[in-house]
Write a structure and sequence with these properties.
The structure holds two protein chains of two kinds. Chain A is of the alpha+beta class. Helices cover 37% and strands 22% of the residues of chain A. Chain A has a nine-stranded mixed sheet with strand order 1-5-6-12-11-10-7-9-8, with helices on both faces. The longest helix of chain A has 18 residues. Chain A starts with 28 loop residues before the first helix and ends in an 11-residue tail after the last strand. By secondary structure, chain B is of the alpha/beta class. A six-stranded mixed sheet of chain B has the order 2-3-1-4-11-5. The chains are: A alpha+beta, B alpha/beta. At the A-B interface, helix 6 and strand 8 of A face strand 5, helix 7 and helix 8 of B.
């Protein structure tokens, strides 16, 4: 019952333990995950997103947005390396080095594992996980943003997720705070309170900063700017009511109207989304699967080092597999083939055939029961495992 | 456990802490129009009402259930919420279960603070760092004041409600880290996906709280 002390695990190499936050992926989950990965890759490819593979080892850099959370290693030359902790930064590096002249728009897709040193928030998070995603680089038009929304919806639809897309624009909150004359630390603290939709913390910060009742009302309004298309009207009214001309905030709303019109389908909006998402410079979005209180896809617009615009999204395969496992088609029936002809026949009719490795019928039968195999095949004849060998050799 | 996908789209799962907050929370939610009653004393951990499931939890677990989406919303003290570090929405201050998290020392103690005992290591670390106090933190589970009285720690960071325990034990509040009250917390996805149910609930709770505190 008692688990070994965490500080001194008994010779880890000899136990069955694996590090916290990692996991073995077993059948049938492995096959389900591969099936989903292949479907997503196929959709991305059909939209013109060509695949690239990135190294899992990178040079460690203090400028990297996930630097504090990345695993670090030291190679034999003393160079500090980091295990890949996020794809967008790595894709930016690849684009600068390999596609400096485009042609733009450049459409790329990636897939692979990521590692984080610490568990983000303890329970329910992995330290090693698998993402696939796309980047649309070199253009920043509303059409480009709308393309990513269309592609996200198409990809999720292809794997059978009925998704709801939600769009945010972190720069909107910042613009409203700027119009209200808020700067520095007070603005940062309010960003955080608004992102958590915490009216109580907004009040506390407003009292501390001596903000007027009118500004406080505006800040509260930001925490309620979520819902359907009607949110854009409220956001526009809020921006116009601001002390400044609200130019930046209005621009954000106009951009979102444009994107929503180009997208055409139903969208959710949350204009209280704030700068939790460090590097995003424009629209952000996520997709929710019906009935699941966790997003299955997320992305947004950013600027690459050097100013090149980019936007993209990523899908976490662990969560997606968890959501979709019950809906995936069952794997084909497995049969035990007593000869190669039988195996070929079974495979030709869409079954999976495992080969017999011995003539010992008792052993074969025992294996079939343990493995859940119901039928055997020999030549052109299928036999139920139940009846096989029961009165065979001895009779 | 009921898998999330099996719920009807407008079913709500609420996480509430067992004990005194549970009664006050249920009463407030019932006044806000949810068909809830105080469950019979029983060993059940999960209570079913029309369209609503109530999960009865340790208060530290409420933010976990809500953040991971097993519960759509919950009620929990701001102190527990800060300590959890969970990224959930907290749209309504319910203004009951008021208390404050304070730095407490023996009356007259002036020596440097080298060690601090607390049930709230995360909040304590943030506070001590902000104050530039390089103290060691000892995580304790109960009767925190004893740590200051016995010399286990030079100070403690703990909840104060009335201050009665402090006075009875020759202790005083040196500083207040923050004031805490019960909050409605909501899962980030649930607020959007179940907004037809949650938005009216949030508005009704805000009205009730505002009316209760109009003095």
């Amino acid at each position: 019952m008692s688990s070994p002390a965490r500080s001194a695990p008994p010779s880890p190499a000899r136990t069955a333990a694996i590090p916290e936050g990692t996991r073995d992926v077993l059948p049938p989950e492995w096959a389900q995950r591969e099936h989903l990965r292949a479907r997503l890759v196929e959709v991305f490819g059909a939209w013109g997103y060509r695949g690239v593979e990135l190294p899992a080892l990178e040079y460690a850099s203090a400028e990297h947005p996930q630097d504090a959370r990345a695993f670090k290693l030291i190679d034999s030359g003393g160079q500090v390396l980091a295990l890949r902790s996020e794809f967008t930064t790595a894709m930016g590096r690849l684009v600068r080095a390999r596609f400096p002249a485009g042609p733009f728009p450049l459409r790329l897709q990636y897939g692979g594992r990521l590692w984080l040193r610490a568990l983000t928030s303890e329970l329910g998070r992995l330290r090693e996980f698998y993402q696939v995603g796309v980047e649309l680089i070199g253009v920043a038009t509303p059409q480009a943003d709308a393309e990513l929304l269309h592609l996200a919806a198409a990809a999720l639809d292809a794997v059978g997720v009925s998704a709801q897309l939600e769009v945010g624009y972190p720069g909107f909150v910042d613009a409203v705070l700027e119009d209200a004359g808020l700067h520095g630390e007070a603005r940062d603290a309010l960003h955080d309170a608004i992102d958590r939709k915490s009216g109580a913390d907004v009040d506390l910060l407003a009292r501390r900063g001596g903000l007027s009742a009118e500004v406080t009302r505006t800040l509260h309004a930001l925490t309620d700017l979520y819902g359907g298309a009607e949110v854009l009207d409220s956001a526009e009214a809020l921006a116009r009511a601001g002390a400044g001309q609200g130019a930046r905030a209005l621009e954000a709303v106009a951009h979102l109207r444009n994107v929503a019109a180009l997208y055409g389908g139903p969208l959710l909006f949350d204009l209280g989304v704030s700068r939790r998402y460090g590097y995003y410079t424009g629209l952000t979005f996520r997709a929710y699967a019906d009935g699941l209180n966790q997003p299955v896809l997320g992305g947004g617009r950013y600027a690459l080092e050097g100013g090149l615009p980019g936007a993209g999204f990523a899908v976490g395969l662990e969560r997606l597999t968890g959501v979709l496992a019950p809906t995936l088609p069952p794997e084909p029936e497995v049969v035990l083939a007593l000869d190669l002809a039988g195996a070929a026949l079974a495979r030709a009719s869409g079954l999976t055939a495992e080969l017999a490795w011995t003539d010992d019928e008792t052993e074969l039968r025992k294996f079939c029961v343990a493995r859940g195999i119901a039928r055997m095949v020999q030549g052109e004849t299928f036999t139920a495992v139940d009846s096989f060998g029961s009165n065979g050799v001895d009779a | 456990m009921t898998p999330a996908a099996a719920r009807t789209p407008d079913h709500l799962t609420l996480a509430l802490p067992k004990g005194r907050i549970l009664e006050e929370a249920l009463e407030l939610l019932a006044r806000a129009g949810l068909p809830l009653t105080m469950p019979e004393k029983s060993r059940a951990l999960r209570h079913e009402f029309p369209g609503i499931t109530i999960l009865e939890l340790r208060n530290q677990d409420v933010p976990v259930y809500v953040d991971l989406g097993v519960a759509d919303a919950g009620i929990v003290g701001k102190d527990v919420l800060i300590e959890s570090g969970r990224a959930v929405y907290e749209p309504v201050d319910l203004r009951f279960a008021a208390c404050r998290l304070s730095l407490i020392r023996e009356i007259g103690a002036t020596g440097t603070i080298g060690r601090v005992g607390t049930k709230y290591p995360r909040a304590a670390r943030a506070y001590l760092n902000a104050q530039g106090i390089p103290a060691e933190i000892v995580k304790l589970s109960g009767n925190i004041e004893l740590a200051a009285l016995t010399g286990l720690a030079d100070a403690v960071i703990d909840l104060v409600q009335t201050g009665g325990t402090l006075r009875a034990n020759n202790l005083e509040e040196v500083d207040v880290l923050f004031e805490s009250t019960a909050r409605l917390v909501v899962n980030r996805a649930a607020l959007k996906l179940r907004r037809e149910r949650l938005r009216p609930l949030i508005e009704r709770l805000r009205e009730l709280v505002a009316a209760d505190h109009l003095v």
